Amino acid sequence: MIQRADATSQPVTDPRNGYSTADFNVSPLIAFYEVTRACNLLCKHCRAKAQPHRHPLELDTATSLRLMDALAGFPKPPMLVLTGGDPIKRHDVFDLVEHAVGLGLKTAMTPSATKLVTTEAVGRLKNTGLHRLAVSLDGADPSRHDSFRGVPGSFQRTLEIMRDARAVNLPMQINTTISRHNIDQIDEMAHLLVAHGILMWSVFFLVPTGRGLAEQRIAPWEYEVAFEKLYQHSLIQPYQIKTTEAPHYRRFLLQRSGWQPGRKNTECPQTIPGMVGTNDGRGVMFISHIGEIYPSGFMPILCGTFPKDSPVDVYQNSKLFKSLRDPHQIKGKCGFCQYREICGGSRARAYALTDDPLAAEPDCVHISLRSARSDTSC
């Protein structure tokens, strides 16, 4: 059994929402809206460099609702993820959820594990129609997690929020950032999550942006160790496992399955669940708290600003978005890799470390022995 291989990866046509690979050219699978940068935590890796207070130019309620209306105008409306900062710090966040759900957008939220996420708040989110709640767990014990999140007690708050979500049958996802501080605890975290009734474990591999530092990320060879552990857990755990900013996990899974490019196989790799996935700007878009439109939250290259610019038009027609969706424009070893159309490398990590969003993935050990002509077509 091969689990999903990337944060938003899907089969060629996903039976739950009807998305196909061709749809990525006109519609994102997921749109992230950073409703605020205000947050009470001090996470060492924070992409947003979150602050205690809301930004004075943060999109107001009316403009936020108009943004959701615009996102619902995609040919295939995306899943909407309300993120931050800490979304729960906005007084109108329940109204935002209710409006998005009313538009037919599947809506998820990633609040910070603080006292603001009360039992009552979790119940209210459930009643407004929230599709999924996601909180972070970055260590298998309080000392490891709390040191990373910067606030004592955040580990316990995460467990309490999970308990409250389980009590009202609100689907739960756990997000984990893998870096030097917890690479040795993958197995312990995987086993810890079993008892909490989660649907998915989303494992993010650090991109050095915001407060995330290049020296915090793991070595390229350690990705392969982590991939093997995640693969083994995907075979036995009751929840799904997916990765974010590690599209080379798809390459790992294909190698693990015995698929070889250039040979006639019983299956084209794109038909294997998880092999057709998103990447920065490919099936993903990000709108900041002040309306800036980016290919992802980890690639802060400005492509437009809402409400001046339409998110539909930016996603479909921005030069950068179109380049990121074209595997033939990828450079270096990724451009010559037989897995380039399935993987493509983390475009955000390439940008963070080389200042070129089309450069080769810096943290992949795979070296292709075949030219780019030997692609993954069937």
Question: What's the layout of helices and strands?
Answer:
Layout: E1 30-34, H1 61-71, E2 79-83, H2 93-102, E3 107-109, H3 119-128, E4 132-136, H4 142-149, H5 154-167, E5 172-178, H6 186-192, E6 200-205, H7 220-236, E7 240-244, H8 248-257, E8 284-287, E9 292-294, E10 304-305, H9 311-317, H10 319-324, H11 332-335, H12 347-354
Parallel strand pairs: 1-2, 1-8, 2-3, 3-4, 4-5, 5-6, 6-7
Antiparallel strand pairs: 8-9, 9-10
List keywords for this structure.
378 residues; TIM Barrel; disordered C terminus; 12 helices; 10-stranded mixed β-sheet
Write a structural description.
The chain is of the alpha/beta class and 378 residues long. The protein has a single domain, classed as Aldolase class I (TIM Barrel). The chain has twelve helices and ten strands. The chain has helices spanning 61-71, 93-102, 119-128, 142-149, 154-167, 186-192, 220-236, 248-257, 311-317, 319-324, 332-335, 347-354; strands at 30-34, 79-83, 107-109, 132-136, 172-178, 200-205, 240-244, 284-287, 292-294, 304-305. The chain has a ten-stranded mixed β-sheet with strand order 7-6-5-4-3-2-1-8-9-10. The radius of gyration is 20 Å and the shape is globular. The two termini are 22 Å apart. The model is unreliable at 1-16 and 371-378 (pLDDT under 50).
